[in-house]
Amino acid sequence: MPTLNGQGAVTASITAINQYLIVPLDAPDSRVFVQFEVDKEGHVRHPRIAKGLRADVDSAVIAATR
User: Fold this and answer.
1) Separation CA 8–CA 31 (nearest Å)
2) Is the pTM of this model over 0.85?
3) What's the domain of life for this entry (predicted)?
4) Cβ neighbours of residue 57 under 8 Å, at least 6 residues apart?
5) What pLDDT, in 10s, does the model give residues 13-46?
6) pLDDT of 46
7) What is the distance between the alpha carbons of residues 5 and 58, in angstroms, rounded to a whole number?
8) Hey, is 19 helix, strand or coil?
9) Whether the Cβ atoms of residue 48 and residue 34 lie closer than 8 Å to each other
10) Domain ranges of the chain
């Protein structure tokens, strides 16, 4: 199974996305679920919201995922 920075795929993905995530100040405290593919070179492809919260928060998650 692929790893990122010595972590498992899920943990590493969450850590990497949170590093770049800028959440709107008035965003509710909740979760957004994002799906994406990682190609052979390690680039994120086709990110999409699986379970969203609100348009501005969803956009922030997509931007952080890219």
Assistant:
1) 20
2) no
3) Bacteria
4) 23, 24, 27, 32
5) 888 899 999 999 999 999 999 999 888 888 889 9
6) 95
7) 26
8) helix
9) yes
10) 9-65
Tokens 């590493």 belong to residue? 12
Q: What is the DSSP string of 20-39?
A: H----TT--S---EEEEEE-
pLDDT classification of 8: cutoffs 50, 70, 90? confident
Q: What is the pLDDT of residue 1?
A: 60
d(CA 66, CA 64) in angstroms, rounded, equals 6
Q: What angle do CA 36, 25, 52 make, to 5 degrees?
A: 30
Backbone angles phi, psi at 34, to 5 degrees: -120, 140
Compute the distance between CA of residue 6 and CA of residue 47 in angstroms, rounded to an integer: 23
CB proximity list for 29: less than 8 A, separation 6 or greater: none
Q: Is 34:61 a contact under the CB 8 Å cutoff?
A: yes
